[in-house]
Structure formats: structure tokens, C-alpha cells
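Question (not urgent): is this output format expected?
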Amino acid sequence: MNKVELAARFPVIKLGASCFANLSEERLKDLEAHKRQITFQKGDIISKQGTFAPSVMFVLDGFIKEYIEGNGGKNTNLRLVGKGDFVALSGLFNNKVSNYSVMALSQVTLCLFDREYLLQVIQENPDMSFQLIHRYSELENSFFSMLHSHLYKQMHGKMARTLLYLNSFNTADCNVFEFMNRKDIAEFASVSTENAIRVLKSFETDGLIEIRDKEIHILNENALENIFQRG
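Got this back:
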């Protein structure tokens, strides 16, 4: 089997994980042999905060959320992860204990790589290291933006940012909001569920969004962006 044929059947390459694209045919075959594929159902806890995290995961299909567990069931959602992205990437370079929990928001299929094995591959392939550092930098910038919103934005600004962020995961045949309840959305915005519902209703009244059962459709993206910028 040549490299093109192997890449065609290797899901992480087909889904755009560029860090694997320039690996040798021998290494791709080795990766294929070392990966494990597993499917989780909606609501399954994939990884628990405070437990050992021996694997780095890649999403082949579905949506998961990474979140920090707080007291009294008050959680903070860190990010949504969809098809074609890594989960628990920070675990490669930090300690082996997970700093957050991971839950399936829909049926999810993951590709798992052993942490120590993947570190070995990275050390032997500078291009892969560069690609992962680039992705890690993108995540860091996203977390800084989220932190700034949580600390300095008012409730409407927080909700506007959250809706725009989650909406970026939508496709022509998938509305990501159908996989989340209002509590999930509130925990992405760091507001109470009651306040999230109230703001969503006001956005709908103002013609900025349309709500159909669990689905939320953005009607005026520019207006939401202005609300976020004004805070």
C-alpha cells in the first residue's frame, strides 16, 4: 500500500489533521497499528477531571465539550470540539492528570493515541511538532478571548460571543444547538441558565436570532458582533 492509499484510509488525515500529512509511509502504517477507535453515546463522560489521561484523542465524528467542574454542579465550559480536531491535546506536554472533564454532546467516534507513543512520533518529526504548536497557539488565543469575555463583558455581551462561537460549528446539514440544552449554552457564557434563557428571548424579540425548539439560527451576525464588542 502506497502513502496516498494509506492516507486515504487514515481518518485523521482525511479530516484535515495536517500534522500527520507529511509522515513517512512507514510511520503512517505504524500510527494505523497504534490507534484505537471507540464510539461514545450522548451524555457519556469520556474523561473525568482529576483522573489520569493516558491518551490523546481525535474526533472522527460528533461533538464533545471540555469543561471544568465546579462546586454544586456549576461548571464552566471551555470549548466545543467537533469533527477533525484533537481532544486533550494539552495532556501531551503537561502532567498526566486531566485538568478538565470531557463529555459527549452527541454520538461521538474518537481515535485514541497513546500519549507516550505520540510524544515519540512528535520528537522524531519536526513538521508535526510545528503543526501541533500552531494548533496549541490557536487554542491558547481562544482561551484568552473567552477569559476576557467572562471577566469584563456584561451578560448580553457574553451571550452574543457564545452564540457566535457555537454557530461557527454549524454546517448546512447540522445545527450544533440541537445537541445542547440551555444549561450547556449558559455554561459556555458563564451566566446562569435563567439569565441565558432571558437573553435568548430578548435576542429573538429583537430579530437577531430565531429559535426552533432546541435549534438556534443566527439572523443578524453583525448585530451580535456589535453587542459583543460593546460588552
